[in-house]
């Protein structure tokens, strides 16, 4: 694969300046916080509202937070290299929850423990239910993530 991101579907075009409600989280096995803080600051700098669930979040808490907060986007980040295994379990629980089947959800960071070989996991994670999977092996993930944000429709003004 030539790129480090895989998209499940074409997303509708967005209007410039839209504000998204975004939930950022890691998974139960990932204790890293710096990646979540980076994503939170990046998203806030781009004008979005962020709820950061923090590290080591159990699957049921991610589902519960998404049901309660109804985000425009869920961002799952992994640094420990377990995104491939943990991500498949988490997305299955999220997509099975009533009301979350159509919520845009992405995963990124270290998708596995094989360096550039992690890219092969992106397609499997999208097939499992994520809308996009970003691998950080070649450092272009953030630019691709920003492109995805620009393509998401934001919540209608309240």
Write a concise synopsis of the structure shown.
The chain is α/β, with parallel strands linked by helices and 158 residues long. Helices cover 37% and strands 17% of the residues. It starts with a strand and ends in a 7-residue tail after the last helix.
- Strand composition percent: 15-25%
Pairing-aware structural class of the strands and helices?
Answer: alpha/beta
> What is the arithmetic mean of pLDDT?
85
Give the number of DSSP strands: 6
Helix content: 25-40%
Q: Return Rg in Å.
A: 14 Å
Q: What is the string of helix and strand elements? A: EEHEHEHEHEH
Instruction: Pick out the low-confidence regions.
Output: 10-15
- Biggest β-sheet description: 6 strands, mixed
Tertiary shape: globular
The strands making up the biggest β-sheet line up spatially as 1-6-5-4-2-3
Q: What's the helix count? A: 5
Distance between the termini: 41 Å
Descriptive tags:
6-stranded mixed sheet; alpha/beta; 158 residues
């Amino acid at each position: 694969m030539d790129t480090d991101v895989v998209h499940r579907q074409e997303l509708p075009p967005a209007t410039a300046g839209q504000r998204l409600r975004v939930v950022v989280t890691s998974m139960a096995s990932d204790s890293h916080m710096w990646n979540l803080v980076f994503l939170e600051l990046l998203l806030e700098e781009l004008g979005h509202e962020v709820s950061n669930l923090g590290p080591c979040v159990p699957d049921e808490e991610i589902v519960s937070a998404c049901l309660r907060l109804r985000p425009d986007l869920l961002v799952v980040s992994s640094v420990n290299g377990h995104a491939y295994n943990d991500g498949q379990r988490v997305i299955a629980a999220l997509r099975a929850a009533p009301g979350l089947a159509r919520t845009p959800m992405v995963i990124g960071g270290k998708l596995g423990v094989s360096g550039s070989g992690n890219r092969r996991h992106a397609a499997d994670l999208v097939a499992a239910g994520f809308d996009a999977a970003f691998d950080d092996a070649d450092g272009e993930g953030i630019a691709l993530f920003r492109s995805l944000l620009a393509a998401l429709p934001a919540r209608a003004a309240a």
